[in-house]
Every structure is written in structure tokens, then in C-alpha cells.
Amino acid sequence: MSDFQSFDVQKMTEQLLLVADGNIPLTEPLQNKVKKTIDSYLEQSTNNTKINSTDEDRIEADELMELLIDETGFEQKKLTEQLALVVIGSANLTQELRFQALKSIEAIKQSYSDEEKTSQQQQEVANLVHGALKDLGYQVEPISHTLFVEGGNMYFRQPSWNKNYFVRLRVRPSNKQINFNVVRMANEEQKDESFYTKHNGEMQQVWCGDSNHSYQKLHKVLKDRGVGLNTVREISAEELPVQVVTADEVPVTLSNQSSKSSDQEKLTKKTLARNSNDFK
User: Fold this and answer.
1) pLDDT value of position 188
2) 164 lies in which domain range?
3) Are 130 and 264 in a shared domain?
4) Residues pairing with 170 in the sheet
5) CB 3.0–4.6 Å: which of 91, 93, 125, 217 could bond 85 by disulfide?
6) 139 and 28, same structural domain?
7) Closest CA relative to residue 94, chosen from 66, 54, 128
């Protein structure tokens, strides 16, 4: 920059300070002068930067960019833009840019690896829980590993239970808790709640009533298979009312299984009664 240019910039700076202090107005000529000076500096800075990227650098930058281009993070997007300039020959592939790109790519790979491991672990837990319930004789739907990641409900039941009763397993990933509750599916055929008063208590006793109840058996089997459950709070049978759920909340196939079990139970009773009469 020449002495004249330095003097001109200094004078312009003094004028801007006066504008900032409110001593003089910001005139249009002064605005244009500021813009022209800034544009001149930017052009001079660009011309002074020597672009000496080789074909190998551009190819490497393109390969690095491909590994980052689908990422949505701010840092990844910034690196992608810088690498794109190298690819088109408008910037150099500096050691710092290469290092930052490789570092970011490694972090992405590690993140994907951790997510895959977590997914595999959750699927293993889902399989173990499903297997334990099946081995204990429960009717149960296949359990998705997403249940233990995203949370949600799943239902299971014993074929011998009243067709409207299930145990609901509710997963809350935020606090790593699993809740078990006896629930009853709403029955349009029997709307008299007093009809279920006795059954509600009986089902709760079956699930969590004594030292050898169903929950304790499930807890032991899961523990033996490596799925440790630490009981945070255990509610006594009949301490809380049985919750009523709609038929839409229970998986269709499981609901159908309960109906078939109930029909089979009625058929067995009728067969036994008939055989008993024949025997007489």
C-alpha cells in the first residue's frame, strides 16, 4: 500500500469515528468510499494468495469431501465447503485442512460404530427377554430392539389367563427403567366393571402376589441369562387398580391368541363335561 493510500485510509477512519460519535452524518459518498476500500483490500488479498494445489491434492480433497458431504453438522459443512474450493482449484489443501477433515471423518466412523454396537446390544436384550417369556409359557409378540432405544410398550400373557388380561412391559430409556403392570383390555361384551373386581385382584396376585409369583420367576430367568434388573419400586398386589387399555393398544395377533385360548378352554370344559356324562 502506498503512502497516499495509507493516508487516505487513515482519513476515512477518522471520519467514521466522527460518525460513530454522532458528530457528523454518514453521507453516501463516505459509504461508497468505505465499500470501495474494502473491495480493494479483498481483491489484493486474493491476488496475494498463491494457489499451488496439485492434481493429487484435488483428488484427495474430492475423496475427503465425499466422506463428509452427507453430514449435517456445522463443522462438517464448513470443511466440505473448504474442500470444494480445493477441488475446483480455488484454494490449497493445507496440512491443517487435511488434518481437520481426517479428524472429523474418524469421529463420524466412531459414532457409527458406537451406534451399531448399541443397536446390537439392544437387539440381544430384546431377544433374551422374548426368549425368557416364551420359555416361561407366555404368549408374546416379537420384540424390536427399538423398544429399548426409543421406548414404548409391549404386552404378553399366559394362555390360561382370562382373555382380557395382559402384562404390559413399558420401557423408559430416559431413566433406563422398565415397568411391569397388569392391564385389562376393554371388553364391549361385558361393560359391568363389578364383574371384573374379583378378577382384577386375582390377576395381580398371580403376577406379583407372593414369593413365587410370575414376576419373580421372570426376574430370575432374566438374571440367569445375563439381563440384570434392579427393582427400584415394587408395588404390592391390589395396591393400585388395574388399568384398562383399548383393543387397539394390544397387538392384533396377541389379542387373537387370547381369544383362541379362551375358546379352547371352553371347548375343553365342554368335552370334559360330556365325557363325564358319558362315563355315568
Assistant:
1) 63
2) 126-279
3) yes
4) 153, 179
5) 91
6) no
7) 54
